[in-house]
Design goal:
This protein is α/β, with parallel strands linked by helices and about 350 residues long. It has two domains: about 170 residues, Rossmann fold; about 180 residues, Dehydroquinate synthase-like, alpha domain (Up-down Bundle). It is built from 13 helices and eleven strands. Helix 2 links the parallel strand 3 and strand 4. The protein is globular and about 60 Å long. The termini are far apart. The structure holds nicotinamide-adenine-dinucleotide, ligand LNCXM5UN and zinc ion. The site of ligand LNCXM5UN has 12 residues, from strand 8. Nicotinamide-adenine-dinucleotide binds next to helix 4, helix 5, helix 6 and helix 10. This is 3-dehydroquinate synthase. Its EC number is 4.2.3.4. It is found in: Cytoplasm. Catalyzes the conversion of 3-deoxy-D-arabino-heptulosonate 7-phosphate (DAHP) to dehydroquinate (DHQ).
């Protein structure tokens, strides 16, 4: 088992990574402060992993909430179901919530934990590749609004992240590719050597080779932990974790959340960010093509949905959380492995990029 740390003074916490670590009762229980636990999961993950998790919690007063599966349910009314269940079961403020599932469950459970009785503990038990390499780490929690992705939420850190790589065995191929999008992102923004390693190992990663996937999770979590520790609330450098997301979130909102997976939208979004970086002369054509080829090799789209035009992007991107005083900022590449958050592009350059992707 590998243990990394997210270093945030009194909000620091461990990330455990390993095969079968969910069978380690003591490891889980070490991070539960009180005697009450509520496990939050979805109706796809519950039949797979809920019972065995509950067995590790004997001696606690445990309840569970099973939410409907998917991005379309990352909203107020689903969150309300969590609060209703916590109140109906008389959970007190020493309760620990456990998020058992993918990023949708992790983001909503974290937000519920931030709000319930003004804040209770929570633990992340991510079961998708995407949530193991990204969403379970860093404390961004929240829900979507029809006008924009993750528009309501809080920065609220978990007490621990338990990544059991065995849970990936049941993950559908499409979800594996979605997780690879965020892994490719880390290479593009911060680590050119990791990018080369990903190029060499992409086929085996898609086949879920255990040793390679474990290394990819460790490297991704290490990069994310370092960036979050440097800038917990995204005052500056943390925004590089948003590479491809301004375009990608616009795609998700345009499609009504759910028909394109988050990772798929980020894949196409990163291809668009590579293209704009190239148009600005910051990376070469060959570097752009190399990035796009890797996104494609991960099984991800490299163009936005048919019928989505430049004006759709401009409208939806104008509500991005990186907009300051009406000025859009984007994460672009100054080189492979070197991301910047910048407003140094003209509206015209952006429009040409967007029009270039129209189909
Ligand atoms: N907070 C952050 O920093 C952060 C980072 C990245 C993404 N996100 C958010 O995460 C969400 C995407 O997360 P996701 O890709 O995990 O999606 P998800 O939570 O919808 O899970 C994907 C699908 O896999 C199923 N599933 C989960 N674990 C499984 C398993 N082990 N076996 C079989 N099926 C399983 C789920 O039921 C769901 O159908 C988006 O809402 C995105 O905005 C947040
Ligand atoms: O942790 C971060 O910071 C990220 O930006 C990680 C992203 O992969 C993730 O999708 C995040 O939820 C996006 O955040 P948002 O602030 O753009 O909604
Ligand atoms: Zn993301």
């Amino acid at each position: 088992m590998q243990c990394l740390k997210v270093d945030l003074a009194d909000r620091s916490y461990p990330i455990y990574i390993g095969a079968g670590i969910l069978s380690d009762e003591a490891l889980l229980q070490r991070h539960i402060a009180g005697r009450q636990v509520c496990v939050v999961t979805d109706d796809t993950v519950a039949p797979l992993y809920l019972e065995s998790l509950l067995q590790k919690l004997s001696g606690y007063r445990v309840t569970s909430v099973v939410l409907p599966t998917g991005e379309a349910y990352k909203n107020w009314s689903t969150l309300q179901q969590v609060f209703d269940a916590l109140l109906a079961e008389r959970h007190d403020r020493r309760t620990t919530l456990i998020a058992l599932g993918g990023g949708v469950i992790g983001d909503m459970t974290g937000f519920a934990a931030a709000c319930y009785q003004r804040g209770v503990d929570f633990i992340q038990v991510p079961t998708t590749l995407l949530s193991q390499v990204d969403s379970s780490v860093g404390g961004k929690t929240g829900i979507n609004h029809p006008a924009g992705k993750n528009m309501l939420g809080a920065f609220y850190q978990p007490k621990a992240v338990l990544i059991d790589t065995d849970s990936l065995r049941t993950l559908p191929e499409r979800e594996v590719s979605a997780g690879l999008a965020e892994i490719v992102k880390y290479g593009l923004i911060r680590d050119a050597d990791f990018l080369t390693w990903l190029e060499q190992n992409m086929a085996a990663l898609r086949a879920l080779d255990a040793a390679l996937v474990t290394y990819a999770i460790e490297r991704s979590c290490a990069i994310k932990a370092e960036v979050v520790a440097a800038d917990e609330r995204e005052g500056g450098v943390r925004a590089i974790l948003n590479l491809g997301h301004t375009f990608g979130h616009a795609i998700e909102a345009h499609q009504g959340y759910g028909s394109w997976l988050h990772g798929e939208a980020v894949g196409a979004g990163m291809a668009m960010a590579l293209d704009l970086s190239c148009r600005l002369g910051w990376i070469t054509d060959a570097e752009r093509d190399r990035g796009v080829a890797l996104i494609s090799a991960a099984g991800l789209p490299t163009v936005p949905p048919k019928g989505m035009v430049a004006a759709d992007f401009e409208r939806l991107m104008s509500v991005d959380k990186k907009v300051l005083d009406g000025q859009l900022r984007l994460v672009l590449l100054r080189g492979m492995g070197e991301a910047v958050v910048t407003a140094e592009f003209t509206a015209d350059a952006l429009r040409q990029c967007l029009v270039g992707f129209e189909q």
